[in-house]
Design a protein that fits this description.
Length: 279
């Protein structure tokens, strides 16, 4: 059974279904919540149910209105927030990269390398209806076959209408700058530890200033904010698995549970407890 939890300025619901291990659904209603720029490990697909919002994505800020769908790549820096002085509600679907890759192999036989969406914001009435049906089906706890069919239909529509295989091939052909690659590797290896710019400079053989500038240019985030995203991704996995919140705080490199709760709330607009209970 799903439950809704109040926040300081709205309502939030997380849905994780054991029949659909590659999917997490988030339903939110907000008035004043402001998300910082952040990332997700997998693909994110969402739509505005009511009201309007701004969306920062691919280096620019645009309006996202009712009925429009936003398509976000893994680790792509973004932030969606309610329009000024306006309430809004949205639905977000977080899709595991493995699920997308498996579907792409069947739906788009020509896809090579990372899948890329042609446009970040689209209007697709059929996909919107399918996403709404999927959300309702998961929330009701329908039969596994029904939910699986809806999910795969959504993914197929997403790939057939909005994927850009050519750009995926180009992305594969353009290697990441060495400095950024080495800095990323260091952060992924030491994500739960205190890291200083001097560590990244030593790992890359560049000056602290050069590392910072190159990293921000390539990822859209400074190294510390990138590390926070790594910690939050791990925290979500541990919370969803039922680990006690205090233990998650320690495992993810936070000084204590209070510190972890504050960081998690800033990043997700929900407390760790709300996220963990939203099954």
């Amino acid at each position: 059974m799903s439950m809704r939890y109040p926040t300081v300025s709205g309502e939030i619901e997380f849905l994780r279904d054991p029949d659909l291990p590659g999917l997490e659904v988030r339903a939110s209603s907000y008035h004043t919540v402001a998300y910082p720029k952040h990332t997700h490990a997998g693909y994110s697909v969402g739509y505005v149910e009511s009201g309007a919002s701004t969306v920062f994505l691919r280096g620019r800020t645009d309006w996202l209105e009712q009925g429009e769908i936003v398509l976000i790549h893994p680790e792509e820096v973004h932030a969606c927030n309610p329009a000024r002085d306006g309430a809004w509600s949205n639905r977000m679907f977080y899709l595991d990269g493995g699920l997308i890759a498996e579907a792409a192999a069947s739906v788009l036989e020509s896809v090579v390398g990372e899948l890329v969406f042609a446009r970040p914001v689209v209007r697709d009435a059929r996909l919107l209806a399918m996403l709404r049906a999927l959300h309702k089906s998961v929330r009701r706890g329908d039969a596994a076959l029904a939910k699986e069919s809806l999910l795969l239909d959504c993914v197929a529509r997403l790939l057939e209408r909005h994927a850009d295989p050519r750009r995926g091939e180009e992305a594969e052909a353009a290697p990441e700058p060495r400095t950024v690659r080495l800095a990323r590797e260091w952060l992924h290896e030491h994500w739960a530890e205190p890291v200083r710019l001097a560590d990244l400079a030593a790992a890359t053989g560049r000056s602290e200033f050069a590392v910072l500038r190159a990293f921000k240019r390539a990822t859209g985030l400074p190294p510390h904010a990138y590390q926070v995203q790594l910690r939050m991704a791990k925290a979500r996995v541990l919370l969803a698995g039922g680990m006690p919140i205090a233990e998650v705080a320690v495992e993810t490199g936070h000084t204590d549970q209070s510190h972890f709760t504050n960081v998690f709330r800033v990043q997700t607009a929900a407390t760790p407890g709300q996220y963990q209970r939203g099954r």
